[in-house]
Amino acid sequence: MGRGDIKTKKGKISNGSFGKARPAKPKKAAAAKAKANA
């Protein structure tokens, strides 16, 4: 249960993935960020 465990938040951060334990940013915020950069 640590960095190697993809089912935990710490494991997801080290693996660079998203899911239940570490949800990606909501679509609304991502769209607003993309619009601001454009």
From TrEMBL:
<feature type="region of interest" description="Disordered">
    <location>
        <begin position="1"/>
        <end position="38"/>
    </location>
</feature>
<protein>
    <recommendedName>
        <fullName>30S ribosomal protein THX</fullName>
    </recommendedName>
</protein>
<dbReference type="InterPro" id="IPR030826">
    <property type="entry name" value="Ribosomal_bTHX/bTHXc/bTHXm"/>
</dbReference>
<keyword id="KW-0687">Ribonucleoprotein</keyword>
<dbReference type="GO" id="GO:0005840">
    <property type="term" value="C:ribosome"/>
</dbReference>
<dbReference type="GO" id="GO:1990904">
    <property type="term" value="C:ribonucleoprotein complex"/>
</dbReference>
<comment type="similarity">
    <text>Belongs to the bacterial ribosomal protein bTHX family.</text>
</comment>
<keyword id="KW-0689">Ribosomal protein</keyword>
